[in-house]
Amino acid sequence: MGGTQILHDVTFSLAAGERLGIIGGSGSGKTITALAIAGLLPREAVVSGSVRANGRELLGLSDRELTAIRGDRIGMVFQEPKTALSPFRRLGTQMTESLAIHYRLGRTERRDAALRLAHEVGLKDPERIVRAYPHEVSGGQRQRAAIAAAIAASPGLLLADEPTTALDVTVQRGILELFTEITDSAECSLVCITHDIAVVNQVADRVVVFADGSIVEAGAVHEVLERPQHRVTQALIAAAGGESS
């Protein structure tokens, strides 16, 4: 049975502690790339090529093997924490879920870990936050809790798919600063997927530009944004008001 090829010869690498921005318009292949890396594509999707983390090939691994890698080696932050987080479970429980999967923690240890994570991601009043349900906190607090869940087991790679789209500008700035702090302190690499030039400029060292499932431009952020070569990059900058600083 035939199908539609979505990605075409997508290739990039990421050093330890490096922050890469993936930018492009809607439907350009950004999110599909992240899902392919994390092994979260639908079962019917056919993936060819190679995805390696610390030299280990991820393509072809079983669901059980991928579950062992997610959280432990790869963490993922989704666009809308209100849907990524279960409305029926307390935030502290969700923040420490990967620890419960990968390590045997007692109830007290898990609660202590939740409080530590809440503090690490800058959540004020952590005692209240870890006991709260997602609907009882603000959007920015939910996203910080989702980030805490993603970094709980100290992964080497953090995938963030449009992590600030649903947030106002002030909260967005704080979340992006948090990503910088995490990667600086933990030597965790970051792939930040966005359509927003300003987000890439604030958080990334390098950027790759997607269009129609392919990478059309790549390089250091300041070089690509100051001297864009491809019409897609030029259009994205123009749509953002021409600001790259």
TrEMBL record:
Keywords: ATP-binding, Cell membrane, Membrane, Nucleotide-binding, Transport. It is found in: Cell membrane. One of its GO terms (molecular function) is ATP binding. InterPro entries: AAA+_ATPase (IPR003593), ABC_Ni/Peptide_Import (IPR050388), ABC_transporter-like_ATP-bd (IPR003439), ABC_transporter-like_CS (IPR017871), P-loop_NTPase (IPR027417). GO terms for cellular component: plasma membrane. It is a peripheral membrane protein. PROSITE patterns: ABC_TRANSPORTER_1, ABC_TRANSPORTER_2. Pfam families: ABC_tran. Residues 1-237 form the ABC transporter domain. PANTHER family: DIPEPTIDE TRANSPORT ATP-BINDING PROTEIN DPPD, OLIGOPEPTIDE TRANSPORT ATP-BINDING PROTEIN APPD. This is ABC transporter domain-containing protein. It comes from Leucobacter komagatae.
